[in-house]
Protein backbone atom coordinates (compact mmCIF):
# COMPACT_ATOMS: atom_id res chain seq x y z
CA UNK A 1 0.00 0.00 0.00
CA UNK A 2 1.44 3.38 -0.94
CA UNK A 3 -0.70 5.92 0.80
CA UNK A 4 -1.09 9.24 -0.99
CA UNK A 5 -3.76 10.71 1.26
CA UNK A 6 -3.85 12.64 4.50
CA UNK A 7 -6.68 12.64 7.05
CA UNK A 8 -7.50 15.00 9.89
CA UNK A 9 -8.13 12.78 12.92
CA UNK A 10 -9.25 15.55 15.28
CA UNK A 11 -12.33 17.80 14.77
CA UNK A 12 -11.96 20.65 12.31
CA UNK A 13 -12.26 23.44 14.85
CA UNK A 14 -10.33 25.36 17.48
CA UNK A 15 -8.10 23.34 19.77
CA UNK A 16 -4.63 23.23 21.31
CA UNK A 17 -3.41 20.52 18.94
CA UNK A 18 -4.53 18.74 15.81
CA UNK A 19 -3.64 15.18 14.79
CA UNK A 20 -3.13 14.35 11.14
CA UNK A 21 -2.55 10.98 9.56
CA UNK A 22 -0.16 11.24 6.64
CA UNK A 23 1.83 8.93 4.34
CA UNK A 24 5.08 7.84 6.03
CA UNK A 25 7.03 9.02 2.98
CA UNK A 26 5.66 12.55 3.49
CA UNK A 27 7.60 12.88 6.77
CA UNK A 28 10.87 13.40 4.88
CA UNK A 29 9.20 15.72 2.36
CA UNK A 30 7.57 17.89 5.00
CA UNK A 31 10.36 18.10 7.54
CA UNK A 32 14.13 18.38 7.44
CA UNK A 33 14.59 15.07 9.27
CA UNK A 34 15.56 12.03 7.19
CA UNK A 35 15.90 9.26 9.82
CA UNK A 36 12.67 8.04 11.40
CA UNK A 37 12.67 5.16 13.84
CA UNK A 38 9.32 3.34 13.92
CA UNK A 39 7.22 4.28 16.94
CA UNK A 40 9.56 7.01 18.21
CA UNK A 41 8.23 10.51 18.86
CA UNK A 42 10.17 13.42 17.35
CA UNK A 43 9.87 17.17 17.60
CA UNK A 44 10.20 18.13 13.95
CA UNK A 45 10.12 21.40 12.09
CA UNK A 46 7.85 21.91 9.09
CA UNK A 47 9.50 25.00 7.59
CA UNK A 48 7.34 28.12 7.57
CA UNK A 49 4.39 26.33 9.16
CA UNK A 50 4.93 24.85 12.62
CA UNK A 51 6.98 22.70 14.91
CA UNK A 52 5.14 19.40 15.30
CA UNK A 53 5.31 16.14 17.21
CA UNK A 54 5.71 13.42 14.61
CA UNK A 55 5.75 9.63 14.64
CA UNK A 56 6.26 7.02 11.95
CA UNK A 57 3.73 4.30 12.76
CA UNK A 58 4.68 1.75 10.09
CA UNK A 59 6.23 1.76 6.62
CA UNK A 60 3.10 3.39 5.17
CA UNK A 61 1.63 5.55 7.90
CA UNK A 62 2.73 8.43 10.07
CA UNK A 63 1.06 10.99 12.30
CA UNK A 64 1.91 14.61 12.90
CA UNK A 65 0.55 16.74 15.73
CA UNK A 66 0.83 20.43 14.92
CA UNK A 67 -0.72 23.19 17.00
CA UNK A 68 -4.48 23.33 16.48
CA UNK A 69 -6.64 26.00 14.92
CA UNK A 70 -7.71 26.71 11.39
CA UNK A 71 -4.71 28.68 10.13
CA UNK A 72 -2.01 26.05 10.58
CA UNK A 73 -4.37 23.50 9.12
CA UNK A 74 -4.96 25.74 6.11
CA UNK A 75 -1.22 26.08 5.51
CA UNK A 76 -0.70 22.34 5.87
CA UNK A 77 -3.55 21.68 3.43
CA UNK A 78 -1.76 23.86 0.86
CA UNK A 79 1.57 22.10 1.51
CA UNK A 80 -0.06 18.67 1.04
CA UNK A 81 -1.67 19.84 -2.21
CA UNK A 82 1.75 20.97 -3.46
CA UNK A 83 3.07 17.48 -2.66
CA UNK A 84 0.14 15.81 -4.48
CA UNK A 85 -1.19 14.31 -1.26
CA UNK A 86 -4.96 14.51 -1.29
CA UNK A 87 -7.30 14.82 1.67
CA UNK A 88 -9.39 11.82 2.66
CA UNK A 89 -12.07 11.51 5.32
CA UNK A 90 -11.36 7.84 5.87
CA UNK A 91 -8.61 7.21 8.40
CA UNK A 92 -6.49 4.05 8.28
CA UNK A 93 -6.59 2.06 11.50
CA UNK A 94 -3.05 0.72 11.73
CA UNK A 95 -3.89 -0.81 15.10
CA UNK A 96 -6.73 -2.94 13.67
CA UNK A 97 -6.05 -6.65 13.31
CA UNK A 98 -8.07 -6.88 10.11
CA UNK A 99 -10.61 -5.10 7.89
CA UNK A 100 -13.56 -6.05 10.14
CA UNK A 101 -11.90 -4.44 13.13
CA UNK A 102 -10.96 -1.35 11.11
CA UNK A 103 -14.60 -0.95 10.03
CA UNK A 104 -15.74 -1.37 13.63
CA UNK A 105 -13.28 1.32 14.81
CA UNK A 106 -14.50 3.67 12.08
CA UNK A 107 -18.08 3.12 13.29
CA UNK A 108 -17.06 3.57 16.93
CA UNK A 109 -15.63 6.98 15.99
CA UNK A 110 -19.04 8.21 14.82
CA UNK A 111 -21.41 6.29 17.13
CA UNK A 112 -23.43 8.67 19.31
CA UNK A 113 -24.87 6.41 22.00
CA UNK A 114 -22.92 5.15 25.03
CA UNK A 115 -24.67 1.79 24.59
CA UNK A 116 -22.95 1.36 21.21
CA UNK A 117 -19.45 1.11 22.66
CA UNK A 118 -19.45 -2.28 24.38
CA UNK A 119 -21.62 -3.80 21.67
CA UNK A 120 -19.41 -2.60 18.81
CA UNK A 121 -16.25 -3.84 20.53
CA UNK A 122 -17.78 -7.34 20.60
CA UNK A 123 -18.54 -7.41 16.87
CA UNK A 124 -15.17 -8.18 15.19
CA UNK A 125 -14.95 -11.62 16.85
CA UNK A 126 -18.63 -12.34 16.11
CA UNK A 127 -18.37 -11.27 12.48
CA UNK A 128 -15.09 -13.14 11.93
CA UNK A 129 -16.67 -16.32 13.29
CA UNK A 130 -19.23 -16.16 10.48
CA UNK A 131 -16.52 -16.73 7.89
CA UNK A 132 -18.13 -14.43 5.35
CA UNK A 133 -21.67 -15.83 5.72
CA UNK A 134 -24.07 -13.08 4.63
CA UNK A 135 -26.66 -11.62 7.05
CA UNK A 136 -30.11 -13.17 7.21
CA UNK A 137 -33.31 -11.15 7.15
CA UNK A 138 -33.49 -11.39 10.95
CA UNK A 139 -29.90 -10.09 11.21
CA UNK A 140 -30.75 -7.12 9.00
CA UNK A 141 -33.84 -6.32 11.03
CA UNK A 142 -31.80 -6.39 14.25
CA UNK A 143 -29.11 -4.24 12.60
CA UNK A 144 -31.78 -1.72 11.55
CA UNK A 145 -32.76 -1.35 15.20
CA UNK A 146 -29.22 -1.32 16.63
CA UNK A 147 -28.11 1.28 14.07
CA UNK A 148 -30.12 3.74 16.16
CA UNK A 149 -27.15 3.57 18.55
CA UNK A 150 -24.96 5.09 15.85
CA UNK A 151 -27.23 7.70 14.30
CA UNK A 152 -29.65 9.26 16.81
CA UNK A 153 -33.28 8.49 16.03
CA UNK A 154 -35.83 11.28 15.97
CA UNK A 155 -38.34 11.56 18.84
CA UNK A 156 -41.07 14.20 18.70
CA UNK A 157 -43.25 15.75 21.38
CA UNK A 158 -46.70 16.04 19.88
CA UNK A 159 -49.75 17.44 21.58
CA UNK A 160 -52.17 20.30 22.01
CA UNK A 161 -50.86 23.71 23.11
CA UNK A 162 -50.21 24.13 26.84
CA UNK A 163 -49.72 20.45 27.60
CA UNK A 164 -46.20 21.03 28.93
CA UNK A 165 -44.19 19.93 25.87
CA UNK A 166 -41.64 22.74 26.08
CA UNK A 167 -41.32 22.33 29.85
CA UNK A 168 -40.65 18.63 29.30
CA UNK A 169 -38.09 19.45 26.60
CA UNK A 170 -36.27 21.79 28.99
CA UNK A 171 -36.33 19.18 31.74
CA UNK A 172 -34.90 16.59 29.33
CA UNK A 173 -32.12 18.87 28.11
CA UNK A 174 -31.61 20.34 31.60
CA UNK A 175 -31.56 23.83 30.12
CA UNK A 176 -33.84 26.47 28.64
CA UNK A 177 -34.03 25.04 25.14
CA UNK A 178 -37.67 25.91 24.51
CA UNK A 179 -39.91 28.84 25.39
CA UNK A 180 -42.35 27.96 28.17
CA UNK A 181 -45.43 30.10 28.57
CA UNK A 182 -48.90 29.72 30.04
CA UNK A 183 -50.32 31.28 26.86
CA UNK A 184 -50.94 28.65 24.18
CA UNK A 185 -49.03 28.90 20.89
CA UNK A 186 -45.69 30.04 22.39
CA UNK A 187 -43.66 27.46 20.46
CA UNK A 188 -43.53 28.28 16.74
CA UNK A 189 -40.42 26.67 15.31
CA UNK A 190 -39.62 23.06 16.00
CA UNK A 191 -36.80 23.06 18.53
CA UNK A 192 -34.35 20.17 18.37
CA UNK A 193 -31.87 18.90 20.95
CA UNK A 194 -29.76 15.79 21.41
CA UNK A 195 -30.44 13.96 24.68
CA UNK A 196 -29.02 10.79 26.24
CA UNK A 197 -31.98 8.60 27.23
CA UNK A 198 -30.55 5.88 29.48
CA UNK A 199 -27.70 5.15 27.06
CA UNK A 200 -29.54 5.80 23.80
CA UNK A 201 -28.88 9.25 22.36
CA UNK A 202 -31.93 10.65 20.55
CA UNK A 203 -32.79 13.85 18.73
CA UNK A 204 -35.79 15.37 20.48
CA UNK A 205 -38.07 17.81 18.69
CA UNK A 206 -40.39 20.08 20.62
CA UNK A 207 -43.14 20.89 18.15
CA UNK A 208 -45.69 23.71 18.19
CA UNK A 209 -49.00 22.60 19.68
CA UNK A 210 -51.45 21.17 17.15
CA UNK A 211 -54.69 23.16 16.96
CA UNK A 212 -56.91 24.98 14.45
CA UNK A 213 -55.41 28.41 14.00
CA UNK A 214 -56.27 31.47 11.93
CA UNK A 215 -52.70 32.75 12.21
CA UNK A 216 -50.90 31.95 8.91
CA UNK A 217 -47.48 31.75 10.60
CA UNK A 218 -48.79 29.30 13.19
CA UNK A 219 -50.51 27.28 10.42
CA UNK A 220 -47.23 27.02 8.56
CA UNK A 221 -45.39 26.06 11.76
CA UNK A 222 -47.96 23.30 12.39
CA UNK A 223 -47.58 22.03 8.82
CA UNK A 224 -43.79 21.92 9.19
CA UNK A 225 -44.23 20.10 12.49
CA UNK A 226 -46.35 17.48 10.70
CA UNK A 227 -43.48 16.77 8.28
CA UNK A 228 -41.04 16.43 11.17
CA UNK A 229 -43.42 14.10 13.02
CA UNK A 230 -43.90 12.01 9.88
CA UNK A 231 -40.38 10.61 9.86
CA UNK A 232 -39.86 10.34 13.61
CA UNK A 233 -39.00 6.92 15.02
CA UNK A 234 -41.07 7.63 18.09
CA UNK A 235 -43.93 10.02 18.76
CA UNK A 236 -44.56 11.02 22.36
CA UNK A 237 -48.23 11.90 22.51
CA UNK A 238 -48.31 14.56 25.20
CA UNK A 239 -51.58 15.25 26.98
CA UNK A 240 -53.07 16.21 30.34
CA UNK A 241 -56.37 15.71 32.15
CA UNK A 242 -57.40 19.06 30.63
CA UNK A 243 -56.16 18.50 27.05
CA UNK A 244 -57.02 15.35 25.14
CA UNK A 245 -54.69 13.29 22.99
CA UNK A 246 -54.12 14.53 19.46
CA UNK A 247 -55.08 11.66 17.14
CA UNK A 248 -52.05 10.42 15.24
CA UNK A 249 -53.89 10.33 11.89
CA UNK A 250 -51.26 9.31 9.41
CA UNK A 251 -47.89 10.57 10.46
CA UNK A 252 -46.18 7.38 9.24
CA UNK A 253 -45.50 8.62 5.74
CA UNK A 254 -41.94 7.40 5.78
CA UNK A 255 -42.41 3.66 5.49
CA UNK A 256 -38.71 2.92 6.08
CA UNK A 257 -38.95 4.09 9.69
CA UNK A 258 -41.29 1.94 11.76
CA UNK A 259 -43.09 4.46 13.88
CA UNK A 260 -43.94 3.85 17.51
CA UNK A 261 -45.80 5.98 19.98
CA UNK A 262 -46.07 6.42 23.73
CA UNK A 263 -48.90 8.22 25.48
CA UNK A 264 -47.34 10.48 28.08
CA UNK A 265 -49.51 12.50 30.39
CA UNK A 266 -47.80 15.53 31.91
CA UNK A 267 -48.35 17.64 35.04
CA UNK A 268 -48.77 14.56 37.26
CA UNK A 269 -48.21 16.89 40.23
CA UNK A 270 -51.66 18.39 39.49
CA UNK A 271 -53.60 15.34 38.34
CA UNK A 272 -52.97 11.97 36.71
CA UNK A 273 -54.47 10.75 33.41
CA UNK A 274 -54.94 7.01 33.88
CA UNK A 275 -55.10 5.96 30.25
CA UNK A 276 -51.48 7.11 29.75
CA UNK A 277 -48.53 4.75 29.27
CA UNK A 278 -46.74 6.98 31.77
CA UNK A 279 -47.65 9.98 33.94
CA UNK A 280 -44.81 12.43 34.49
CA UNK A 281 -44.18 15.80 36.01
CA UNK A 282 -41.39 17.93 34.59
CA UNK A 283 -41.83 20.24 37.58
CA UNK A 284 -41.25 17.64 40.31
CA UNK A 285 -39.19 15.19 38.21
CA UNK A 286 -41.71 12.39 38.83
CA UNK A 287 -41.10 9.47 36.45
CA UNK A 288 -38.60 11.41 34.33
CA UNK A 289 -36.01 8.58 34.63
CA UNK A 290 -38.69 6.08 33.74
CA UNK A 291 -39.58 8.12 30.65
CA UNK A 292 -35.95 7.93 29.46
CA UNK A 293 -35.98 4.15 29.92
CA UNK A 294 -39.32 3.79 28.12
CA UNK A 295 -38.03 5.85 25.18
CA UNK A 296 -34.87 3.73 24.96
CA UNK A 297 -36.76 0.45 25.21
CA UNK A 298 -39.36 1.52 22.62
CA UNK A 299 -36.65 2.26 20.06
CA UNK A 300 -34.03 -0.36 20.98
CA UNK A 301 -35.89 -3.12 22.87
CA UNK A 302 -33.88 -4.85 25.64
CA UNK A 303 -34.16 -8.24 23.93
CA UNK A 304 -32.44 -6.81 20.84
CA UNK A 305 -29.62 -5.40 22.99
CA UNK A 306 -29.26 -8.74 24.76
CA UNK A 307 -29.32 -10.82 21.54
CA UNK A 308 -26.03 -12.69 21.17
CA UNK A 309 -26.15 -12.63 17.34
CA UNK A 310 -23.82 -10.43 15.28
CA UNK A 311 -24.61 -6.80 14.56
CA UNK A 312 -24.08 -5.99 10.88
CA UNK A 313 -23.48 -2.30 11.55
CA UNK A 314 -23.25 -0.02 8.47
CA UNK A 315 -20.04 -0.79 6.60
CA UNK A 316 -19.49 -4.07 8.49
CA UNK A 317 -19.68 -5.93 5.19
CA UNK A 318 -20.05 -4.94 1.59
CA UNK A 319 -21.58 -6.94 -1.28
CA UNK A 320 -18.00 -7.49 -2.55
CA UNK A 321 -17.32 -9.50 0.63
CA UNK A 322 -19.51 -12.26 -0.83
N1 LIG B 1 -47.81 22.07 37.57
C1 LIG B 1 -47.16 21.85 36.44
N2 LIG B 1 -47.21 22.77 35.46
C2 LIG B 1 -46.56 22.52 34.32
C3 LIG B 1 -45.82 21.31 34.12
N3 LIG B 1 -45.30 21.32 32.88
C4 LIG B 1 -45.67 22.50 32.33
N4 LIG B 1 -46.42 23.24 33.18
C5 LIG B 1 -46.98 24.58 32.94
O1 LIG B 1 -47.87 24.53 31.83
C6 LIG B 1 -47.79 25.73 31.05
C7 LIG B 1 -47.54 25.41 29.59
O2 LIG B 1 -46.29 24.80 29.48
P1 LIG B 1 -45.50 24.70 28.10
O3 LIG B 1 -44.31 23.84 28.37
O4 LIG B 1 -45.26 26.05 27.52
O5 LIG B 1 -46.55 23.90 27.19
P2 LIG B 1 -46.53 23.63 25.62
O6 LIG B 1 -47.38 24.66 24.99
O7 LIG B 1 -47.12 22.26 25.44
O8 LIG B 1 -45.10 23.71 25.16
C8 LIG B 1 -46.67 26.58 31.69
O9 LIG B 1 -47.26 27.55 32.52
C9 LIG B 1 -45.88 25.54 32.50
O10 LIG B 1 -45.24 26.12 33.62
C10 LIG B 1 -45.78 20.35 35.19
O11 LIG B 1 -45.17 19.27 35.13
N5 LIG B 1 -46.48 20.67 36.34
MG1 LIG C 1 -44.35 24.85 23.60
Provide keyphrases for this structure:
single chain, 322 residues, alpha/beta, Gyrase A, domain 2, Rossmann fold, 2 domains, binds guanosine-5'-diphosphate, binds magnesium ion
Give a structural overview.
This protein has nine helices and twelve strands. Helix 3 packs antiparallel against helix 4. The chain is of the alpha/beta class and 322 residues long. The longest helix is centred in the middle third of the chain and has 16 residues. It is 30% helix and 19% strand. Bound molecules: guanosine-5'-diphosphate (GDP) and magnesium ion. The site of guanosine-5'-diphosphate has 20 residues, from helix 6. The site of magnesium ion (MG) has 5 residues, from helix 6.
Query: Strand arrangement, largest sheet?
Result: 3-4-5-2-1-6
What does the main sheet amount to?
6 strands, mixed
Total discrete domains:
2
What form results from the Cα inertia axes?
elongated
Gross CATH architecture of the largest domain:
3-Layer(aba) Sandwich
Mean pLDDT over all positions: 89
